[in-house]
Amino acid sequence: MNFVASRATAIEKLNQFAEKNLIEYSRLRNFDYGPNNRSNISCLSPYITHGVISEFEIIKKSLSKFSFSKNEKFIQEVLWRTYWKGWLELRPNVWTDYLNELKKIREEFKDSANYKNAIEGSTNIECFNEWVNELKENNYLHNHARMWFASIWVFTLELPWQLGAEFFMKHLYDGDAAANTLGWRWVAGIQTQGKNYLASEWNIKKFTNNRFNNIKLNESAPPIISNKTYSASKLEFNNPQNLEEKNLLIFENNLSFEISDFKDQKFKKVFLVSNKHENRFIELSEKLMKFKSQLIEDQKKRLEEKSINTEIIDLSEIQNINETSYGLYPTVGENLDYINANNLKIEFLYRKLDQFSWQYCNKGFFNFKNYIPKIITTFN
Description:
Helix 1 (7-20) packs parallel to helix 4, helix 4 runs antiparallel to helix 5 (68-89) and helix 5 (68-89) crosses helix 11. The protein has helices at 7-20, 25-28, 45-49, 55-65, 68-89, 93-109, 113-120, 126-138, 143-156, 161-171, 177-188, 201-207, 286-305, 334-341, 352-357, 365-368, 372-379, and strands at 248-250, 270-274, 310-314, 325-328, 346-349. It has three domains: 7-89 and 358-379, Alpha Horseshoe (Serine Threonine Protein Phosphatase 5, Tetratricopeptide repeat), CATH 1.25.40; 94-207, DNA Cyclobutane Dipyrimidine Photolyase, subunit A, domain 3, CATH 1.10.579.10; 248-349, Rossmann fold. By secondary structure, it is mainly alpha-helical. It has a five-stranded parallel β-sheet with strand order 3-2-1-4-5, with helices on one face.
């Protein structure tokens, strides 16, 4: 499989999926046929994560083909990431605590043979080894495989979920602080306290078309216990009433300014912000860093075609801009951590979709999905 780092590719993937495969999505979405056959899923998440294509471009396209009732499962999956981001925005300490825990656990497991075998794909579990290699080679895994992988990591290999989440973040083209961290917490049984996800031999065999043998798993492990609880904060995500003509900072999660809520606003200059290894707590693979860099270059090219004054800078260079700038909000994660740690003066601009949707992220997804028709009506 191939993820070309461009908006044109994202649009092409969306159109092809909508025309050929969307109709079968609900029925076939849980099957992992392997990296050479992804026709049953959209594979748009790497582009959604980086804001190269928006959730509502995807939803609008799907609704042009089929009714909401026929599209409901697909639309829910598209908005899962919106929900995860909102949930974490209301509880940012979950991310902070994760990084603090990871720092300690790294030291504890630095010489662990079990951990080394896991990240090298050298365990005695055939399917797990295959997914390790697939992740490193393709920087992508089917969502069902991610669930199986995380469950095996935590409950069969008995490794800390924090290290598994880091391993995913190092390689996944669609990795982000919210979806990745909270997804691993959910599998472990601490996102929904006391309810873990246990991979099973029959389930893996069924949904991989019996591609794997030697699947001996711990299918009765209890959930991981955590005494930490997090209450949703009452936060407001407001934009300035009157935008002035200032510089605009765009981070790696908003790389389609030309379709953004602020596309008609005049800015002095647009700075596309790259985040290099030295500014990150989790070091990303070279392939992932290259993918991000190419997406930023693609955004620069598109903006320059519209005669918008654009420059690519490193995150550490923001402090050299000697005036307060606007910034498309980067959401909880490494970029925001750096901004806060260095007290950089940025006025954040929030997407209308996030402003509206995040108010419904104070509880679980099953509550959030009740508001999806309202969200769609508001923005479609």
